[in-house]
Amino acid sequence: MLISPDEINKSLASHGWDYAEKKISKSFTFDAYMEGIQFVQKIAVLAEAQNHHPDINIGWCKVGISITSHDLGGVSTKCVNLALGIDNIMEA
């Protein structure tokens, strides 16, 4: 089920996620390249468990995440839950 931009912002704005073009996105910065790679590996495990997979852009000490529901054409509850799970990985 798709959720409204207001609901998305209420759930994620305080966590640093941006909503634009029917997706939520956030960039994470690391001190070393391999820290970003390890972060992506943890995201992959979470995404597979939730059967909801983000688009991931890996750069030098930076990882960009974009999440949308390709099937539904926008941001769903599953997208928000994945985003919050990714934040939990970062905080661990």
H/E element sequence: HEEHEEH
At CATH level 3, the topology is Gyrase A, domain 2
The level of helicity is 40-55%
Main β-sheet, spatial strand arrangement = 1-2-4-3
pLDDT average, as an integer? 96
Number of E strands: 4
Q: What is this structure's SSE topology?
A:
Layout: H1 5-12, E1 18-20, E2 23-29, H2 33-50, E3 55-59, E4 62-67, H3 77-91
Antiparallel strand pairs: 1-2, 2-4, 3-4
What does this structure look like?
The protein is an alpha+beta fold and 92 residues long. The chain has one domain: Transcriptional coactivator/pterin dehydratase (Gyrase A, domain 2). It is built from 3 helices and 4 strands. It has a 4-stranded antiparallel sheet with strand order 1-2-4-3. Strand 3 (55-59) and strand 4 (62-67) form a beta hairpin. Helix 2 packs antiparallel against helix 3. The longest helix has 18 residues, at 33-50. The radius of gyration is 13 Å and the shape is globular. The model has no long low-confidence stretch (mean pLDDT 96).
